[in-house]
Specification:
The chain is an alpha/beta fold. 46% of the residues lie in helices and 17% in strands. The chain has one domain: Alpha/Beta hydrolase fold, catalytic domain (Rossmann fold, 3-Layer(aba) Sandwich), CATH 3.40.50.1820.
Length: 278
């Protein structure tokens, strides 16, 4: 087990393979294990780095609410890469991790060879409903614990597609979610999801973002479709891929397609064939 202390907390991380660094940042309902199909595939070509955010064991679980924010997660990632002596990497993120990847690219563009931003932007539309749902999950985490929350969270309207396509993989996802910390998850929802800026509020930063960027979204991941189109429209070097009949967890729902699309993108970037719009 590899552990590094960043910003006063211990983070778990794992490095697999050799080559140019490729970093994966996980979603709220996942952890480093959620990237298993990508670790197996991309470690053939790259040095793959996965890690658990604060609040996700075996990383530390601070109990101070002020220890959780999107900016803090970005700084955690920055310090992790500094610890690993990584000056530049491809950065991939899903959902919460997609927001981290995108905003890491905005803050540290010199450290990013490319960005893959998947399933990103929940809360940018239907804000009142989003906040109500977050507070409901937090309340149930505090009253019922992680196992009960995993039972209903894993069959949400953007998660049920995974269960339909891959029942066994979905059970594994649900079981791993049930192992998370209820305290860490509740504080992450409050400090990160409820407080991060909407994708629509990043328009000026997106227009200035010159890092090659691939935006990925499932066509049934309704909260993320408009933000995905917005990112494609405003990031000069962005491309957009939409996964058919897919929900939120597209790296697990459609691992072969996800890996192929991302590999083609990385290859184009490395050969300087990824276009920037005029």
């Amino acid at each position: 087990m590899s552990i590094v202390t960043v910003n006063g907390v211990k983070l778990f991380y794992e490095v697999t393979g050799d080559g140019f660094p490729l970093v994966f940042s996980h979603e709220f309902a996942g952890d480093y294990r959620s990237w298993a199909p990508q670790i197996s595939f991309f470690s053939r070509f790259y040095q793959v780095i996965v890690y658990n955010n604060r609040g996700y064991p075996p990383s530390d679980i601070p109990t101070n609410p002020e220890a959780y924010s999107q900016d803090i997660l970005i700084d955690d990632l920055h310090q992790l890469l500094t610890h690993l002596n990584i000056a530049k990497a491809h950065i991939v993120g899903l959902s919460m991790g997609g927001n981290v990847a995108l905003n890491f690219g905005i803050k540290y563009p010199e450290m990013c060879s490319s960005l893959v931003v998947a399933g990103c932007g929940s809360g940018s539309t239907n804000r009142e409903e989003f906040e109500q749902n977050i507070r409901l999950v937090v309340e149930r985490l505090e009253k019922e614990g992680m196992k009960n929350v995993a039972e209903f969270y894993s069959v949400g309207r953007t998660r049920i597609q995974f269960k339909r396509k891959d029942p066994r993989g979905w059970v594994n996802f649900k079981d791993q979610l049930a192992e998370h910390s209820a305290i860490g998850s509740a504080l992450t929802l409050r400090g990160v999801q409820l407080s991060r800026p909407s994708i629509f509020k990043l328009e000026d930063q997106l227009r200035r973002l010159l890092v090659p960027t691939l935006v990925l979204v499932g066509d049934e991941d309704e909260p993320c479709i408009e933000p995905a189109i917005f990112m494609k429209s405003h990031i000069p070097s962005a491309g957009l891929a939409v996964f058919p009949q897919s929900g939120h967890t597209i790296n697990l729902e459609e691992p072969v397609l996800f890996n192929r699309v991302v590999l083609d993108f990385l290859t184009a970037v490395e050969r300087e064939k990824w276009a920037k719009r005029d």
